[in-house]
Amino acid sequence: MRRRTVEAVALGVLIGVAAGVGGYTFAYAKGYSYLMNDPAACANCHVMSEQFSGWTASSHRAVATCNDCHAPSGFLAKYANKASNGFWHSFAFTSGRFHDPIQIKPHNLEITERACRKCHADLAVAIEGPSEDERNATSCVKCHRSVGHLH
Amino acid sequence: MAKDAGAKEARQTAAETEGGGRRTVRLVAATAAISALAAAGVTALLVNVFERKQEARNPFYRVVEISDETEDPAIWGKNFPLQYDGYLRTVDQVRTRFGGSEAVPHTPTKADPRSIVAQSRLEEDPRLKTMWAGYAFAKDFREERGHAHMLDDQTFTERQQVVVQPGTCMHCHASVYLPYKRLGNGDLIKGFEAMNGMPYSEARKLVAHPVSCIDCHDPQTMQLRVTRPGFIEGIRSLEASRGVADYDVNRDASRQQMRSYVCGQCHVEYYFKGPEKRLVYPWAKGLKVENILDYYEEVKHKDWVHAETGAEVLKAQHPEFEMYNQGIHARSGVACADCHMPYKREGALKISDHHVRSPLLNINNACQTCHKWDEGEMRARVETIQERTFELRNIAMDALVQLIDDIEAARGAGKTDAELEAPRKLQRRAQFMLDFIEAENSMGFHAPQEAARILGKSIDASRQGQNALRAPAPPAAPPLESPPPAAK
Question: Who's near B15: CB < 8 A, 6+ residues apart?
């Protein structure tokens, strides 16, 4: 066998091993489930169990999934947001460095506030007027904290 | 010339081939190194995911058998190391603005071998000595410490040297579930009655631990249970006053109620009834301060005769359960344990924090689970309530001390018992109401408006007592007004 061939095979083996271990880890950690809409995926790691079980008993359980309130609309925006949150959530959970009880970050809170208006736009406009300026926005969840999950 | 050129070319080719070989080797080595690192990283992640999945299975290892005869908390701790770890931490002494305790060095003596105690409340506020004149509390009264110290602090207080305390005290200063059962040959109530009748020193020999696991937990199921006869009988009398017959707390209470009732076993107002020194929680008419005063009038109870005024007075004792029940948290279904033993995460496990302490030392878990304000804001809200209560408490304290001084002066000037009857009655009332808030460990927080209402009534009673002293003919003491009814 020519030396080139040996080297190519060696390289192939290395790439194959990395891909295999990576692929197995992805499957074992149910990585594919995060690309879907099933709320159970968000409770894959037990840290979100409280939020998930709260949601199953909430007023919105039949009309909204996690993504409906926590991901922005639009295919690209939704998956970009899922990728970013997915990475940082995994990083926090793996390293064990996160605030407990869990607190939502301002950017994600804005997404949620906008999500209320996806369905309740008429109501929101009736309260706030037709202003597009977000600084005039009322916070929905300040009063309606438990519609999705209490804690 | 041509030969030269040929040789040069050959040398070049050889060098190139050799150089190319080295480059390939380096490339493969570098790729191997990088992919090895990547594989190691991914494997580490894989193992981490695996470990987290294992955590989520909530493992519980039963390494020792626990029965209804296992008193030593260290044995329970083998099965429940995380809870036990928190329980041990109740040795901590940390101050809060109005509570907690400070470690004060103490020279060990034969009578009191403690090298560390808590700060003296009598030195902080000498008016307490006037209020309790003629009672053991005027001799020694220190800030309460954590659960771990309950037995020692009771055993070695100087109050023991002034009065012979009964064995009844053990009910709440030691793990008495098993000692009671042994004394009563398996009957808790019989054992309770037997220990009540002993002198303290004799009862002390029968107990070994401060409050322990077995005092609140069923050893088979770990469910909460009430083991203290005082509470079993007290809550039964309270429920009877509400029209519920034959209330059995261990049969009828909900899980969430139990998360307060196990604390209410001891954090209550009480008295020792009759020569048999039976421990009784005075709840037969209700939990409010007027209900309790009414009850004491009816059974003609007094704790001591005030040394300066001759009034038959009462000592209120840490009525946290009674006060909490008048507050908004109780009304919202929040239990003692929700704030004093809030849930915390240990890996994937969620356990209630057995380091029982002031929520102000644990604001994140105690308050912020429900209240979405920052820690500084939560502390400020609590302390605002406490500062206001403290201000009223000081006004009430001054008013009471002035009434006591006035009665003492009138006594010295030869006023008769008949003339002093009304002022003394009012002193008893004012003093009990003030002490109800003073002895209650929250400086008003458990029920802010109720605390203010009671202190207002205390101030009024003190001033009415002074007016009664000045009246030309001895007046009758005004009747005690009932508390406003609770909204349904």
Answer: none
pLDDT tens sequence across B273-299: 999 999 999 999 999 999 999 999 999
Find tokens 């005092």 and name the residue: B215
Return d(Cα B224, Cα B215) in angstroms, integer.
9
Chain centre to alpha carbon of residue B407: 37
Percentage of chain B exceeding pLDDT 90: 69
Which candidate in B48, B350, B375 is best for mutational testing of the A interface (most A CBs within 10 A)? B48
As separate numbers, helices (DSSP H) first and strands (DSSP E) second, chain A gives: 5, 0
Specify the range with the lowest mean pLDDT, choosing from A93-97, A145-149, B26-30, B438-442. B26-30
Q: Do B348 and A46 touch (CB under 8 A)?
A: yes
CA B256 to chain centre: 17
Residues of chain A found within 8 Å of residue B48, distances taken between Cβ atoms: 94
- Yes or no: say if B221 and B60 are a contact pair by the CB < 8 Å rule: no
Q: For chain A, which residues score pLDDT lower than 70?
A: 1, 131-132, 134-136
- What's the rounded Cα separation, in Å, for the pair B434 and B426? 12
B72-109 residue pLDDT tens: 999 999 999 999 999 999 999 888 888 888 888 988 98
* A-contacting residues in B 14-33 (Cβ below 8 Å): 21, 24, 28, 31-32
Q: Say yes or no: A18 contacts chain B, CB-CB below 8 A.
A: yes
Q: How many Å lie between the alpha carbon of B24 and the closest alpha carbon of chain A?
A: 8
- Chain A residues with CB inside 8 Å of B42's CB? 18, 21-22, 25
User: Residue A1 burial by CB count (10 A; 0-12/13-18/19+): exposed, middle or buried?
Assistant: exposed
Q: Tell whether A143 is within 8 A of chain B (Cβ).
A: no
* Integer Cα distance of B380 and B387 in angstroms: 10
Chains A, B: CB contacts within 8 A come to: 58
The larger pLDDT score, comparing residue A143 to residue B454, is at: B454
- Asked if the Cβ–Cβ distance from A17 to B35 is below 8 Å, we say yes
Taking phi first (over 0 means left), then psi (-120 to 50 degrees means alpha), and beta for anything else, what does residue B243 get? left
> Could you please report the per-residue DSSP string of B329-341?
HHHTT--HHHHHS
User: DSSP 3-state assignment of A74?
Assistant: coil
